[in-house]
């Protein structure tokens, strides 16, 4: 409970100068420390002010509540994607502008400058061409260094945006867990929550690195094709045909299949984690009845189903990567052969510039573009799963207040404090009905009436499944009543669950439960505990 890691060292990025930020020199001490002695938790830096989970969670939760309020009147399904975009679109748009500047403007100029520089050695050398060669050489080196620095900064910026989205999503998931009522809890499992917070949210980290290449590809291909046209003319069309077949048709289909398999993998993983959680909780019963072998076969079967779809996804990813590796060679071969067949002459300037052009095509269209499509498909599946969880029933804020200040409840919504004719601490239930299902055939509780006065000891007896725990959940406000009224008056309710639970900590830490140490109060708790034992 007190295992929180306190990071003492401030983030070096905040105090770095402009040159250090451009060259990323502020990170060198960390690499040096890791090279000498290895990194530990104490070597981590404090998070920057804009990266704290509380602040990010507040931003996304506010946007999500606005989205839910907007869709309440239209009956549409709230979109978590719109909520995320409304929070992070500005910073991610800036990353997109840098990506466009890098791949559409700066990077295509490198092979163009390279061709002009090489032509100096193949043509007539004069003082004017000598001066131009130095200019082309300077431009070539400047563009190479600039694109290298910009590419790393763009990747870092996109990774930071993805990290913030992931942290914000984890924050609102945690807050949602604390607000779930019993109906919402019955529709989910601990294994599903673990899968959401460990696997699904990680898609944001990966998707943020590549999504901009989806809109960028239609701009990169025409720009590069126009520059290639200046060198080889109609032979450019042969290269475009190869790009269209590999990038648009094959890779798009593979990405679609990968996204579909991602949804199946997530469902199989949820099922396996759910079964494993139930097995761990019931391991004593399993050992007592010697059920190890049947349950071992069950877990093995579930794992094989999961691995089967993971293997299919791995095969698709492997084929996509292998296809991307040979793209540059296919395009270059098609362009050069077509150019020669049309009567063109191969020169060093043309050949080396074509290699650079098609290397850019391969990087943007056959590596990043397929990854972007795959990550978009997987992220869409993950967002859908997150939306399903965030839309589960939760405790109504008014009902939570009612448990504390205890006004009247009528069908879970109506309050009447002024006309209350009961004593402040009297608990009164009148014709109360409640159920775990939205529209049940038969309610779990039917027409329950109860009056409990201060100082009375009331016991509720019944068979297993008769609704004793359901009655307590209704009184606590965690299960909304279908009909009837509840009057809690001014009573303050304490609930002790029949299922004991402890944190992995000392006895003292479990008693304090995160509160500051009060010696007198702690002693009273210990004495009351001893009195219960004797």
What do these coordinates show?
It is a single chain. This protein is mostly helical and 534 residues long. Helices cover 68% and strands 4% of the residues. Residues 96-377 form the ABC transmembrane type-1 domain. The chain crosses the membrane at residues 83-110, 135-156, 207-228, 234-254, 356-377.
Write a brief structural summary.
The chain is mostly helical and 534 residues long. It has 19 helices and four strands.
Percent in strands: under 5%
CATH architectural type of the largest domain = Up-down Bundle
User: Radius of gyration over alpha carbons?
Assistant: 32 Å
Number of helices: 19
Mean pLDDT: 82
Strands, helices and their partners?
Blueprint: H1 12-15, H2 18-23, H3 28-37, H4 53-74, H5 80-122, H6 127-179, H7 182-186, H8 190-200, H9 202-208, H10 212-232, H11 236-281, H12 283-288, H13 292-325, H14 327-341, H15 348-390, H16 397-405, E1 408-410, E2 427-434, E3 445-452, H17 468-476, E4 483-487, H18 507-512, H19 519-533
Antiparallel strand pairs: 1-4, 2-3, 2-4
Helix pairs in contact: 4-5, 4-6, 5-6, 5-10, 5-15, 6-9, 8-11, 9-15, 10-15, 11-13, 11-14, 11-15, 13-15, 14-15
